[in-house]
Amino acid sequence: MRTACIWIPRGNAKTTLASALALAHFMGPEAEAGGQVVQAAADRENAGIAFKHSWEMVKQDRALSARVSPVESRKLLNHPKTSSVLKAISSEAYSKHGMNVSFFLADEVHAWAPAEARKLFKTVQDSMVKREHPLSVIISTAGEGTGGLAWDLWDYSHKVASGEIEDPSFAPIIFAAPAEADWRDEAAWHAANPAIEAGFCSLEELRIKARRIEHFPSEIADFRRFHLNQWQEGAAQPWVALELYDACEPMPDRADLLGRTCWVGVDLSSVEDLTAVVAVFPSEGENGKVYDVLPMFFLPEAGLARKAERDRADYVRWRESGVLKVTEGNVIDHKAVVEHVAALAEDFDVQEIAIDRWNSTAVNVALQEEGFTVAQFGQGFASMAAPVKELKRAILSGSFRHGANPLLRMCFANVVAETDAAENEKFTKERARGRIDGAVASAMAVGRILATDEGPCVYETEERPDGFLWV
C-alpha cells in the first residue's frame, strides 16, 4: 500500500484524523528513523490549523511533549530520538525541492489551486522513491469542477473501488451518498457521515440546514457536496445529466472524418476568457442525425494559472494534452482562431461558420476574407430553441459523439436551461465562473445544419415562386 484516498464530508473530524495519522508516522508505531512527515494544506492559514492540531495532541500528554522539540514559527516538530521531523506546509508556497518524505498527508485537496497541487504532489511522490515504505494519505471532502488533481484522485478512487482499475497499491475509502439519493433523505445523511453515529456530527444541525435550503435552492449543490460528499461537476441542475452525456457513442478517429462535410460554431470571448471553435459533422442514423464533434479551445497565456483556479479547470494540463491552445499576450488572439478554422478547411469540407453577432466583427471579416461563408447567430430563444432541442435529442439518444473531450464536457456540465413561456430552451450558466462556450458553439453549428436542411430562405436568391408573395 502506497496511497490511501479518504473522501468524507465536512463535520466528520477530518483534521483530527489527519493529525493523528501524521503523529503515528512521526513518533508513533509507524515511525521510522529519519522520517520526514509532511502535512500539506491549501494555504498558510490551513497549514497552521493542521500544525496546531498535531502540536495540541502532543501537548495533551507529558511523556509525548517531553520527547518533541517544536519550532512553532516554522510549523515544525522535531523528534530528536529518531531524527524525525513533522512539518506543515501550504500548497501555494511552492518551494519544496530537497524533500525526502516518508509520510505525506494532503488535507482538503479539493481546495488546492490546480497548478500548485500538481507540482507539489509530483515533487513529494518523486521524493518518496528514496524510502522503503512510504505512504501518502489524501483526506478531503468532494470538490467541484472537472479539472485539477483532486478531480483526478476522485475519479481514480471510484474506478479502483468499482474494480474498473486494479491497483493494489491504492486504497480508496469513500463515504458518500449515492448519486441518485434525495438530498433530504436522512438515510443518505447517515450513509455519508459516519460521525453521526459517533455523536460528533450533529444530525439536528443537518436538519436545520435542510429545512432552510428548501427555501434557497441555490444552496442545494453545496449541501450535496459538503454533507453528502457528492462531487459537483458543474451546475446543480444541469441541462442534461452527465451520465447521459458520457454514454454517447465514441467518436471516429479524425482520419475517418477527412473530407467530410462539417459546420463550425465559433463562440468568442470578450477579452481574456475561453473561446470555443467546434466543428460538427452530421450523418444520418437510425434515430435521426448523428453528430461527430471536433472542438478546440483558446485562452490567452497571461494569467493562465489564475484562470485555472477561478474556473476550477485544469487549463495547464489541457494545454499540454492539446485540447487547449494558449496564445501569447493578455487578450484572445483572433488571428489564431481564424488560422484554426482555415486549417480545418484543409482537411474537411467546411460549409459554413456560425458566429455570435456580439463582439465578432473583426473575426467575421477575417473569415470572409479567407473565403468562408459566415452566418451571424443570435443567442436568444429565436435562434437557440431549435438547435438546443436537437442537441438534447442527440445526447439522449447517444448520437452526439464528442470523443470525451474534457473541456467540452466541462462546458456541458456548466449549462443550465433558461425556458420561455412556450417551453423553448436556451443555454445559460448558473455561476459567473462556469464556462459554457463549447456547448454554445456546438449549438450554433447544429443550428446552421438544421437551417441548411430546411433549404434557403426565399430572400437568399433571386428566384421567386409563381403567384403572390405575401410580405
TrEMBL record:
Residues 165-451 form the Terminase large subunit-like endonuclease domain. One of its GO terms (molecular function) is endonuclease activity. Residues 3-157 form the Terminase large subunit-like ATPase domain. InterPro entries: P-loop_NTPase, TerL_ATPase, TerL_nuclease, Terminase_largesu-like. It comes from Rhodoblastus acidophilus (Rhodopseudomonas acidophila). This is Phage terminase-like protein, large subunit, contains N-terminal HTH domain. It holds the Pfam family TerL_nuclease.
